[in-house]
Amino acid sequence: MANLGIPQNTIEILQKYKFNFQKKFGQNFLIDTTVLERIIAAARITAEDCVLEIGPGIGTMTQYLAESAGQVVAVEIDKALIPILEETLSAYQNVTVINADVLKLDIKQIAEEENGGKPIKVVANLPYYITTPIIMSLFESGVPLDSITIMVQKEVAERMQVGPGTKDYGALSLAVQYYAKPEIVANVPPNCFIPRPTVGSAVIRLTRHQVPPVDVKDEHHMFALIRASFNQRRKTLANGLSNAQELHLTRERVTQATDKMGLSPTVRGETLTLAQFAELSNLLLEQV
User: Which terminus of the chain has a lower count of CB atoms within 10 Å, N or C?
Assistant: First the structure.
């Protein structure tokens, strides 16, 4: 089968099947062999690996993955792409295509069936609107994961790896950094896609921590604190947390905990590190 990383081959297959791009699925197909090779290298795919690919499209990256991995499971939501994938991947015996919404799939079960429960690697070219739900679902569901290597909007990739005190720092930065080590491995301009997106993209590798980098008694409680403090980022931490109804916290309790941590009563959530949020969560739980 022709290499779909070459633009002419992609155009031919799209015309053959009279394929119409679906805005609701945020479809932008990669047409740059150099970028495809960099993604495979960044994901460190070997013949020992079982790879879950989310959103294979017409199978461009799937072909590259199939050449390097032992097994590839490609999950595609758009049923119009399934006949195209049957053609473009017909040469590969190690690819399974599933027509489904990845957020409704039991990925733990797939890892069990396809990889004997050993950690899988995830590779994806994700549309902006679905990036965070998919990443968080993979981390929170306890799927055995080695790494996630994804193409996302450039500013989202940057948000995942920044630290406190920057305008991009937020709940996503902290959630990703709790579960994994983020590293941007390539910037990808709009002309590497059909159709061209209006924004730049980046490839980021999230290498799963074997053990979380902070010691927290209740991670759900810590993330509730993080969300509440960034929902009202202009407010002080004490005001932001006491205003969040689901937390049932008073200003006094928050101030008591921040005092113990040696923080100013007017501290804002956006200046706290992951370790400080973990400490704050633990202190607030001890007060009860």
Answer: C
Residue 1 domain-assigned (yes or no): no
Please give the Cα distance from 267 to 80 (Å, whole number).
52
Same domain? For 224 and 127 the reply is no
- Say if residues 269 and 229 touch (Cβ distance below 8 Å): yes
Q: Mark whether 56 and 191 lie in a shared domain.
A: yes
CB count in 10 Å sphere of residue 250: 12
Same domain for 48 and 106: yes
Contact at 8 Å (CB) between 204 and 184? yes
Beta strand 180-188 with 193-194 is unpaired
Domain end residue (candidates: 208, 230, 247): 208
Q: What is the number of domains present in the chain? A: 2
CB distance 148 to 124 below 8 Å: yes
- Same domain, yes or no, for 164 and 270? no
Residues 6+ apart with CB under 8 A from 114: 50, 71, 73, 96, 120
- In terms of domains, do 184 and 244 share one? no
Instruction: Determine the Cα–Cα distance for residues 125 and 102; give it in Å rounded to an integer.
Output: 13
Nearest-angstrom CA–CA distance, 211 and 181: 11
Residue by residue, pLDDT tens for the chain (288 residues) are: 688 889 999 999 989 988 887 777 778 889 999 999 999 999 999 999 999 999 999 999 999 999 999 999 999 999 999 999 999 999 999 999 999 999 999 999 999 999 999 999 999 988 777 888 999 999 998 899 999 999 999 999 999 999 998 889 999 999 999 999 999 999 999 999 998 988 999 999 999 999 999 999 999 999 999 999 999 878 899 999 999 989 999 999 999 999 999 999 999 999 999 999 999 999 999 976
What's the domain range around 40?
A: 7-208
